[in-house]
Design goal:
By secondary structure, this protein is an all-alpha fold. It contains 20 helices and two strands. A two-stranded antiparallel ribbon has the order 1-2. Helix 7 crosses helix 8. The longest helix has 37 residues. The chain is globular and about 80 Å long.
């Protein structure tokens, strides 16, 4: 175990840290995470429009079209918001004007992905005019959003670095000067993506989706092996003292966002919650696997509450409230689990076991797939209930997996408790 940890610390951790801190990866992570409030709000409207109480559902039936609007303007155009966030974040790194770069990035994304539909004559309720299909702006175009945002900012950075800009006289307000400084690069960005999409006919969104779909199937799809691989990476990094999800975020976050957004869109369109596209969404891990935080550590916190060790009992009291809301740093670094071979073993094993249980419960039809996104701070059983269209079976599964965590952690807890009691006895003497 120690040799394995040493190899990871020397070989893997430095690479992982560099990957997580690389400017483009950091911009992708920050930009996509900035859209979380919108997807969460959109999820609440999805839940509201599908209430399981007959009287409420009957009352809301005439308003379904209206209730669908918040979803369409949050999750439905997720890539548009992500483009702005990614471009904004990368521009901040380069110390460029983030607002101007965010707008240029959005322009690049729209030109590259959203071809206007020209309606010449009124057709039914559709008036003559030009229209954009908002489906092109959904999470399915997220990789196109990433590319257009990064490329557009890099073009602006190149122009700025080589002083190919319009410089305004001293005394001109900064916002005006920044707008004129972005004139040349904005024109280049516009012409570049216009040529690629509309003259050459190359669809970036379609190409990237086709290219990366196999990877999506591994990291955020319906493959049990892929789900276990994701869990292994996250938990192993955590045991080394590195925020596992943060390290994996630049790689897996786009796939997670696409997966839950697709499930939500399918559900809104009438697909049965048992027949949605993706099992291994981030929400699947949050509510069935990460009960109390990564590693399912709420079970360990509960065990600490009944420990004979004064330190562990006190730590359990301090970590209980955060743990109920899926914040596990107190126990991760307080026990610690980090670099602790005894507690690291169940920290890695327990999530794999609960993921397997949840996977087979899902494919057998016992529990539905995730159709909504709730804040990570929701207690797992309640969030599991709400995120699966009020499935009581999902609530039960979350509780069952918590009991499984308790069973797996217990023998390792007893060994760790024995060691802690010896330390306390030596200190008291």
């Amino acid at each position: 175990m120690n040799n394995f940890v040493n190899v990871l610390e020397k070989k893997v951790v430095p690479v992982a840290n560099k990957l997580g801190q690389q400017r483009h990866m950091a911009a992708i992570r920050k930009g996509i995470i900035s859209t979380l409030p919108l997807t969460i709000v959109g999820s609440f409207f999805t839940i509201l429009s599908n209430m399981p109480i007959p009287a409420v559902a009957h009352f809301l039936a005439p308003y379904q079209e209206i209730l669908d609007i918040p979803f369409r303007f949050t999750v439905g155009i997720l890539s548009l918001y992500a483009t702005f966030g990614i471009a904004y974040s990368l521009a901040q790194y380069y110390k460029l004007d983030p607002l101007t770069n965010g707008i240029i990035g959005v322009m690049a994304f729209l030109v590259a992905t959203a071809k206007p539909l020209h309606v010449l004559k009124p057709q039914g309720i559709v008036e003559a005019g030009r229209y954009l299909n908002i489906a092109n702006l959904s999470a399915s175009s997220l990789f196109a959003a990433i590319v257009t945002a990064l490329v557009s900012v890099e073009i602006v950075h190149y122009f700025t670095k080589h002083n190919i800009t319009i410089k305004m006289p001293a005394g001109v307000p900064p916002e005006v000067a920044n707008s004129f400084a972005g004139l040349f690069p904005a024109a280049v960005v516009l012409i570049l993506f216009w040529l690629v999409r509309h003259l050459l006919g190359f669809n970036i969104a379609t190409f990237l989706s086709s290219l990366l779909m196999p990877l999506k199937g591994v990291l955020a799809g319906n493959s049990l092996g892929g789900g276990i691989l994701t869990i292994l990476f996250i938990t192993i990094f955590w045991t080394l003292g590195i925020h596992g999800t943060a390290i994996m975020d630049p790689i897996i976050r786009p796939f997670w966002e696409m997966a839950i957004a697709k499930n939500m869109t399918e559900f809104q369109a009438g697909t049965n919650v048992h027949h949605l596209s993706t099992i291994f969404t981030e929400q699947f891990l949050q509510w069935f696997v990460w009960i109390g935080g990564a590693g399912g550590t709420l079970a360990l916190v509960i065990l600490f509450l009944f420990s004979k060790s004064n330190y562990l009992k006190e730590l359990g009291r301090l970590a209980l409230l955060p743990g109920l809301f899926n914040i596990n740093e107190p126990v991760m670094f307080g026990a610690p689990i980090v670099l602790n071979p005894i507690l690291a073993i169940p920290f890695i094993i327990a999530p794999i076991v609960t993921a397997v249980i949840a996977y087979f419960a899902t494919i057998s039809g016992l529990v539905p797939m995730m159709m909504a996104r709730l804040p990570i701070s929701f207690p797992a059983p309640i969030a599991a209930l709400m995120s699966t269209n009020w499935s009581w079976q999902a609530l039960v599964l979350s509780l069952v997996n918590f009991m499984v965590d308790l069973v797996i952690y217990y023998p390792f807890f007893k060994v760790f408790e024995y060691q802690q009691l010896q330390r306390e006895a030596t200190t008291n003497n």
